[in-house]
Design brief:
By secondary structure, this protein is mostly helical. The protein has helices spanning about 5-15, 20-40, 45-55, 70-80, 85-90, 105-125, 135-145, 155-165, 170-195. The chain binds fe (ii) ion.
Length: about 200
């Protein structure tokens, strides 16, 4: 599976509907994380497709939060995205705002790591380094258990995501930390450029 859009067109589409730095940071983070997972899971040839699903998964959230995952197909179709990408985007909200179940391994990973990248990002900002580079799973697990910390990141969704993959929570955390380490610097630079460039 290769994307029908260029990365440049996808980024332009993202920026058409997303202006908040936090949302751009999240989109670019999940893009980088999905690219890492494609390699890790033996789907290196589809890495661009996995990454694009990550980049565009929340495309409708900033402007249509009440229609999250329901407005997205229209925006993506108009932008030139293919149906497989639209299916993946819709499936990340399964059980919350969508009835499209994650089926493909890529969709299961997107579902599992979306909320978790939010939790990891919040935990990283609390560290002296402000980075995931020196973050260990043990400290992330403490943040996961502390329900008051980053309360908006649903622990249930993260747990459910790991279950769907047949992974333990620790495995999912370990891989997602590695994935975020791989793209942290590039994502920070590109977010900065988009917001102030
Ligand atoms: Fe998201």
């Amino acid at each position: 599976m290769t994307p029908t859009m260029t990365r440049e067109a996808a980024l332009e589409l993202l920026c058409k509907y997303n202006k908040e730095p936090f949302h751009l940071l999240h989109a670019l983070t999940v893009e980088g994380v999905m690219r890492w997972f494609a390699q890790d899971q033996g789907y290196g040839a589809e890495a661009d497709f996995w990454a694009m699903a990550g980049l565009l998964h929340d495309i409708d959230f900033e402007l249509w939060p009440q229609e999250h995952c329901r407005k997205a197909p229209e925006l993506l179709r108009a932008g030139g995205a293919d149906e497989a990408l639209i299916h993946a985007v819709c499936s990340h909200g399964y059980g919350l705002c969508s009835d499209v179940a994650p089926e493909h391994p890529m969709e299961k990973i997107l579902f599992a790591c979306d909320e978790l990248t939010g939790l990891i990002g919040a935990a990283a900002r609390m560290r002296p380094s402000k980075s995931v580079q020196d973050m260990e799973v043990s400290s992330l697990k403490k943040k996961f258990k502390d329900k008051k910390f980053a309360a908006g990141c649903s622990r249930d969704v993260i747990r459910q995501g790991a279950e769907r993959l047949g992974w333990t929570l620790e495995e999912l955390m370990e891989k997602t930390i590695l994935a975020m380490r791989s793209c942290e610097e590039a994502v920070a630079g590109e977010t900065e450029a988009l917001c102030h460039g």
